Amino acid sequence: MQKLRLRYTKRGRLRFTSHRDIARTFERALRRAGVPMAYSQGFSPHPKVSWVGAAPTGVASEAEYVEVSVVERVDPAALRIALDEALPPGIDVMEIVQAHGGNLTERIDASEWRIELDGIEPEKLAEAVSAFLAAERVEVERLTKNGMKTLDVRPAVVSAQVEPRSSDAGHDEAGLSQPCGILMTVVRQVTPTVRPDDVLNALRVVADLVPPVPARATRMAQGRLDGEGRLVDPLQQDRES
What we know:
With 241 residues, the chain is of the alpha+beta class. 23% of the residues lie in helices and 32% in strands. The protein has 5 helices and 11 strands, in the order βαββαββαββββαββα. It has helices at residues 19-32, 76-86, 122-134, 196-207, 236-240, and strands spanning 2-10, 49-52, 60-70, 93-98, 110-118, 139-144, 147-152, 157-162, 180-188, 216-225, 231-232.
């Protein structure tokens, strides 16, 4: 059995698609691409596909990960092309590597997020970020299926800074209005999970920052934090083995 690790995107309208529907779409694409999937044992066998830290519904992502097990060896480069063609626009397979031991989940403990706040001056956003970083605790409320819960957002946020538009040449900014604040933040994947909307609610708590229109969040990267607070690519070890 061969185990493969994939990085894929979730863009455009697909950011509103639930993880369950994304998973179903992926499994259909694997069948259409003729991938020799490995299946679990038992009364109701299912493909051996393991999802790692799926992004919340409503946000986009440039760095989603999934592991796939196959019963025949396949060429990762050829599979990437075939699978990418079988998937709908918005889900793009960026890379496939063969797994070389270890647990992929253990290589991911944080995410980098880009949050675009249309109608917010960058200077005002920077003031709110400074107030947030200076606080020891910033509690927000989140509606769950069991009612309202209080969550301290501050410990999960490793870094946060306002980024000029021009510094991200590879990002499509055609739809951004003037003014627009862009927040780049690295957030630990703790329990309960701190999501982009929790960070925005925290800025509202500390600085009364309320965007006039819904913010747009994109996960730019996932990985393990190194000693300097930077993310280490979770597939790096597989590439080097």
